[in-house]
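Hi, here's the filled form for the chain we discussed.

Project: internal
Contact: R.S.
Residues: 162
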Amino acid sequence: MKWFLDHVEEFFMIPLIFAMSIIIFIQVVCRYVFQNSLTWSEEMARYMFVWLVYFSVSYTARREKHIRIDAAINIYPKKARPYIEILSEVIVLGFAIFIAVTGYTVFGKIAWSGQMSPAMRIPMQFVYAAPMIGMGLTAIRQLQCIYRRIKALKNHEEVTEA
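And the returned structure, exactly as it came back:
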């Protein structure tokens, strides 16, 4: 269970990338070799990409590799930098929670409406669950990061990658 919790993003990202690549490859072959394209492949690849993006956000949060401007942190004195970094992690946490809650609201509205995808006829709430789940995972990863940074600050250590 610990392995799964440490690698939940990779557990979903790797099959998504693989399946998306295969589907797009098959679509290209069908279109250019057989002059007949699949009706569902582009929609499926698009929805898989949406899920991949949200799992990737959580993955980068876990690895502490999300975009940041080091020059902005480096303008502060060395002693203040750990506090500034914690503040920036708290801001990202707030953003992740906001998007997850907003995603939950949108998910509920889409589920209530019964909207279906045009080509595959799957319920659209499965697609709209991606922001809610991905940013929920990101919020959890941000909490873990903040905890590590506070613990390192108390122990006078450098923060290491998760």
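Let me know if anything looks off before we file it.
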